[in-house]
Amino acid sequence: MLDGGIYVSTGAVINAQTGPSAFLAYIIATFVAILNSLIYSELACHVPKDVACYGHAHSILGELPAFITAWSTFIDYILSASLVARSWSNIIDTFSGNRIIVLYSHGFCKSFIVTIIQNKSMVSILILINFLLFVSVLFYNYRSEF
Question: Which of 3, 21, 38, 101 reaches 20 to 30 Å from 45, CA-CA?
């Protein structure tokens, strides 16, 4: 349930920006991870196969919500990997004496993912797309009783 980012830049962010409120954020994140684990265990009891989130969504909701769930998970994995890679590059740059930042500022090694992550509007659009996909999955099999 833990991603690599918790081990990469936690100390630097707590030291520079958050302070003691980070402890409360970790408590809330722990509660969310426990709920996520309980949901997956309930789904594993309902569908006793070795499947991922696509298989659970396909057996319970159908083809379209399973497709949307798979692509949402794929986007989540890509964003998580790019954020962890960016944090690790900052650590490696610190160990190299800030030589990588100097090369990057002169136009060397420009990366597409770093540009997307620095562009906050693009991240907001990706979050909005994931939210809309989530809402569409919720109301896909909704049947009114009126």
Answer: 3
Which pairs with CB-CB distance under 8 Å and at least 24 residues apart come from 43-52? none
Do 80 and 31 fall into the same domain? no
Q: Do 98 and 141 belong together in one domain?
A: yes
**Do 65 and 94 lie in a common domain?**
yes
The answer to whether the CB of 3 falls within 8 A of the CB of 80 is: yes
* Same domain? 83 vs 143: yes
42 and 64 assigned to the same domain? no
Contact (Cβ atoms closer than 8 angstroms) between residue 36 and residue 1: yes
42 and 59 housed in the same domain: no
Per-residue pLDDT of the chain (146 residues; tens, 9 = 90+): 455 556 656 666 677 777 778 778 888 988 988 998 898 888 788 777 777 788 888 888 888 888 888 888 888 888 777 777 777 777 777 777 776 666 555 554 555 555 555 666 666 777 787 788 777 777 766 555 54
Asked whether 46 and 60 are in contact (CB, 8 A), the reply is: yes
Instruction: State the Cα–Cα distance between residues 121 and 38, nearest whole angstrom.
Output: 33
